[in-house]
Design brief:
Strand content: 15-25%
Structural class: alpha+beta
Helix content: 40-55%
Shape: globular
Strand order of the largest sheet: 1-2-4-3
Length: about 130
Amino acid sequence: FTDAEGCFLISGKRTPSRGGTKFVFKIGLHIDDRAVLEYIQNMLGVGRIEYETDKCTYTVTKFEDIISVIIPIFTFTKLFTQKYLDFLDFKSAALIKNSKTRLTQEDRDNIIDLKEKMNTKRSFVPFDLSNP
């Protein structure tokens, strides 16, 4: 599901802000498929599901859950699309945040540099499925 319908997101700015740096993992599906997201949520024991008119989204925002559940899953089970590169940047940024009790400006800059090359901002790189 994540290769097609999932997303790794980082929010934050280079300057310290009240909200700090946030990490989010999401999977969005049509409302008819909500049972799949409910199954994922029950199996992982983390996250929440939000329902809208014709779609539903499974979201994990608690940083401890990102570190202890989401990152280990995708470290062990590789993705097969460009999303794998997004995950690697997401993981690197999360590990920077997790290694400090207080982020330095250099840490924030490194996290934002990683964020700025993820998802739609990523340059196309041919992906080699034989070497994940």
